[in-house]
């Protein structure tokens, strides 16, 4: 087969760009750092949204929508927040043909404007917890843009909640972390993320705790796939989110926020893609089975269409390709690029033998299957290949993760993958030293893999890596 | 019952504002003209999106996402387009802490940026038609904002398509008009819209034809609920969208665009709301049946929860209210405000008699129903009340529409509702005269109610009205 993409081993960033272009997932937008998400990419995002949205609603949060435009003064109310976001802001200075009295910021995130409304809506302890989420676009000016990973505008969900006390806020931030994000990433995206606590240096601007989910990409680097924050009372004090307690006193609420974005599309590509293109896990895939007419022939198109119906009736998301005017080889290369989990190829010779050919994207295996057995064979392949992609990603992570004892060893090991090292051997000073060599502390975990409440707990393990 | 809202007959605009606030549908945002869509309002929008999105996909269009930011120069490429939108633009002049070399416009609509990419993606006639849609926010600076109806930022879907010839573009613009918009508005929103052609004066900036769907509101005014445009070759020429035809020549494509927005939430309120609050048509309603525990009692909460399960199993979208600490009267008023189609009320006395009480929002009728029959009674009520709301809206429209012969009569009749008048009695000059009296030509139709191809066809009927 002719080489379609730059091989990963030759130039991973180039492979990534090639794949996005050739699989028609996205394009660069005309304003620097923006992107156009094309139908093939957007269909995957819609599936991500559907899976995430269901989990968010199960966790009790309700969707709402807050404005794109935020008065600049709102950002200044929380000192760390404005410091963190100021360098990334897009500012509207003219509206309706006139200069504005106060400049307006295009939201980089919505803690401030949502804080303002939480303050209006929360009155008594009976109004808590207040659990909100929105699906929206946000803008963070980006000097070194890369499609899906760092773009000046991206799409995301951002959850914002207010609670009566710290314990409830913490429990909810962790519920989202595990029941929404980790469950989705592991069981749908097939990416065995490591879940942990960010260090003070890596914390969200304005948070007291930032929890993260880190995935390993095909080049051994880490990608932050999502974060959940405890904001303590920082925003409640800045925006005056208070409530009357059952005892009658007036208290500040405790808030959280949590987000995941189109960056996950970048993670999907880099965790599962191979030199032939994307590989989409079956549970996520907008098209799970792609039925192809190999070439025209007596009854072939009809038999293929019947197979599509049978697969659809069995609950499979089906694509159909009967473009027999286009050479089959070119169509097969395109199907590989797009990463459909299973192809069902049907030509006159196959049909004469009563067969279709099942091609599995994960292994590349091609198996003739009697037409009557196609549905059950597809269902079995989709189930198995969901697991296969996860297990391959886990095996890669394990083979590229080294447990070491010292900071120098960890920085060395992070050249090829991830390093697990005692946090006591790193500390804030070691972290700065690692950063100077383009290595970051991705997160901290307890020895048993659980997520700590503080970086001051004893015996924590730090994960160090290069990252996106 | 205490008066909850300003009655419609007393002050319709005040009633509208009261309803939005008390049903907790939305709030004004901090930047003038922006809005916050609260969970109760957003849940309705999500149902609108789901119903519309399914129809858009059935019509063959694929979802994609184009950038929020558009270079100012793009808008200038189509002369009428820039003239139409310039007064409404929000302009970003600073990004990442620095002044920008070229000002950026926050999209008021996306014909220009999508045109740029259509030009890249379309090569041969085989690439046509190209059928795209996006769900997005847009910004049009608004001097006289009103929530849902005219806001500086709103949410919408905008479809953009490219075709090989005018006939195909026209057929598609009309397919969307009837199969997506009209079908949704009549059969889901329950609003008997009139569908017609806009006059040249009311046409979209850059279009050759604008088709519209006009709904009558409770005060007799018209609301434009959605539009579908033929753009001719205007944008294809401005953005160089060309293709190689089967014959080998290079041709400009023909494009369309079509949109519907959160404005439909305003239409829903004003078409169906009454003095007790919102009335949501059952097919649209996020909560179709609202099960309420009237007060605590032996086994009441359990019986109510069982009813919820039985309703859910029957495919009904269910809400549950067991907040027995809050006075029942207050909860019932709130349920009326929110417009849940059917309430199922269960108290100790009802349960002792083996009954629940079914309350229908449309008529206000309260009927005791044996617990075992609740599911079938709810299903029957939902079916019937979908039709009732539509028929009430139709009866109102008919009673407030006058067929007249002259422009003066039409302007007079538009003081109380809609006027049907021969277009030949109005014309461009009459239209200007009507506009001076705050009356507009909503659309033109043929005598048989079908949609004309041109305002120059003979025997057209003009609909004149005041409007939002």
Automatic annotation (TrEMBL), chains A, B:
<keyword id="KW-0963">Cytoplasm</keyword>
<dbReference type="Pfam" id="PF03129">
    <property type="entry name" value="HGTP_anticodon"/>
</dbReference>
<dbReference type="GO" id="GO:0005524">
    <property type="term" value="F:ATP binding"/>
</dbReference>
<dbReference type="InterPro" id="IPR045864">
    <property type="entry name" value="aa-tRNA-synth_II/BPL/LPL"/>
</dbReference>
<keyword id="KW-0547">Nucleotide-binding</keyword>
<dbReference type="InterPro" id="IPR036621">
    <property type="entry name" value="Anticodon-bd_dom_sf"/>
</dbReference>
<dbReference type="InterPro" id="IPR016061">
    <property type="entry name" value="Pro-tRNA_ligase_II_C"/>
</dbReference>
<keyword id="KW-0030">Aminoacyl-tRNA synthetase</keyword>
<dbReference type="GO" id="GO:0006433">
    <property type="term" value="P:prolyl-tRNA aminoacylation"/>
</dbReference>
<dbReference type="Pfam" id="PF00587">
    <property type="entry name" value="tRNA-synt_2b"/>
</dbReference>
<comment type="similarity">
    <text>Belongs to the class-II aminoacyl-tRNA synthetase family. ProS type 3 subfamily.</text>
</comment>
<dbReference type="InterPro" id="IPR002314">
    <property type="entry name" value="aa-tRNA-synt_IIb"/>
</dbReference>
<dbReference type="GO" id="GO:0004827">
    <property type="term" value="F:proline-tRNA ligase activity"/>
</dbReference>
<dbReference type="InterPro" id="IPR006195">
    <property type="entry name" value="aa-tRNA-synth_II"/>
</dbReference>
<protein>
    <recommendedName>
        <fullName>Proline--tRNA ligase</fullName>
        <ecNumber>6.1.1.15</ecNumber>
    </recommendedName>
</protein>
<dbReference type="GO" id="GO:0005737">
    <property type="term" value="C:cytoplasm"/>
</dbReference>
<keyword id="KW-0436">Ligase</keyword>
<keyword id="KW-0067">ATP-binding</keyword>
<feature type="domain" description="Aminoacyl-transfer RNA synthetases class-II family profile">
    <location>
        <begin position="32"/>
        <end position="281"/>
    </location>
</feature>
<dbReference type="GO" id="GO:0017101">
    <property type="term" value="C:aminoacyl-tRNA synthetase multienzyme complex"/>
</dbReference>
<dbReference type="InterPro" id="IPR002316">
    <property type="entry name" value="Pro-tRNA-ligase_IIa"/>
</dbReference>
<dbReference type="InterPro" id="IPR004499">
    <property type="entry name" value="Pro-tRNA-ligase_IIa_arc-type"/>
</dbReference>
<comment type="function">
    <text>Catalyzes the attachment of proline to tRNA(Pro) in a two-step reaction: proline is first activated by ATP to form Pro-AMP and then transferred to the acceptor end of tRNA(Pro).</text>
</comment>
<keyword id="KW-0648">Protein biosynthesis</keyword>
<comment type="subunit">
    <text>Homodimer.</text>
</comment>
<dbReference type="InterPro" id="IPR033721">
    <property type="entry name" value="ProRS_core_arch_euk"/>
</dbReference>
<dbReference type="InterPro" id="IPR004154">
    <property type="entry name" value="Anticodon-bd"/>
</dbReference>
């Amino acid at each position: 087969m002719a080489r379609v993409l730059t091989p990963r081993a030759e130039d991973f960033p180039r492979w990534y760009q090639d794949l996005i272009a050739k699989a028609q997932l996205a394009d660069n937008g005309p304003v620097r750092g923006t992107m156009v998400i094309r139908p093939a990419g957007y269909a995957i995002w819609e599936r991500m949204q559907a899976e995430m949205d269901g989990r968010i609603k199960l966790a009790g949060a309700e969707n709402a929508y807050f404005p794109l435009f935020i008065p600049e003064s709102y950002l200044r109310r929380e000192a760390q927040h404005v410091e963190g976001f100021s360098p990334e802001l897009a500012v509207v200075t003219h509206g309706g043909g006139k200069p504005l009295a106060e400049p307006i910021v295009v939201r980089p995130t919505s803690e401030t404007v949502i804080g303002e409304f939480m303050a209006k809506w929360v009155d008594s302890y009976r109004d808590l917890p207040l659990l909100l989420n929105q699906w929206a676009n946000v803008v963070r000016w980006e000097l070194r843009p890369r499609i899906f990973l760092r773009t000046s505008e991206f799409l995301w969900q951002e959850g914002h909640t207010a609670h009566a006390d710290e314990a409830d806020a913490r429990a909810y931030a962790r519920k989202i972390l595990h029941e929404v994000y980790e469950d989705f990433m592991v069981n749908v995206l097939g990416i065995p993320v490591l879940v942990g606590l960010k260090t003070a240096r890596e914390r969200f601007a304005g948070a007291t705790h930032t929890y993260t989910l880190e995935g390993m990409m095909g080049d051994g680097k880490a990608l932050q796939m999502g974060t959940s924050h405890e904001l303590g009372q920082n925003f409640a004090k800045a925006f005056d989110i208070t409530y009357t307690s059952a005892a009658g006193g007036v208290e500040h609420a405790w808030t959280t926020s949590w987000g995941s974005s189109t960056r996950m599309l970048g993670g999907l590509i880099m965790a599962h893609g191979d030199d032939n293109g994307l590989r989409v896990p079956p549970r996520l895939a907008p098209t799970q089975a792609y039925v192809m007419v190999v070439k025209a022939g007596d009854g072939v198109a009809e038999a293929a269409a019947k197979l599509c119906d049978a697969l659809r009736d069995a609950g499979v998301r089906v694509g159909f390709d009967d473009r027999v005017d286009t050479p089959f080889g070119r169509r097969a290369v395109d199907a590989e690029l797009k990463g459909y989990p299973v192809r069902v190829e049907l030509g006159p010779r196959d049909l004469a033998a009563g067969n279709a050919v099942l091609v599995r994207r994960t292994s590349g295996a091609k198996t003739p299957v009697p037409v009557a057995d196609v549905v059950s064979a597809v269902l079995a392949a989709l189930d198995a290949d969901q697991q296969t992609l996860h297990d391959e990603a886990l095996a890669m992570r394990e083979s590229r993760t080294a447990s070491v004892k010292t900071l120098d060893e960890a920085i060395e090991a992070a050249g090829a993958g991830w390093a697990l090292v005692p946090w006591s051997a790193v500390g804030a000073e070691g972290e700065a030293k690692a950063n100077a060599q383009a290595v970051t502390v991705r997160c901290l975990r307890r020895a048993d893999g659980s997520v700590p409440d503080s970086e001051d707990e004893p015996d924590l393990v730090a994960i160090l890596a290069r990252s996106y």
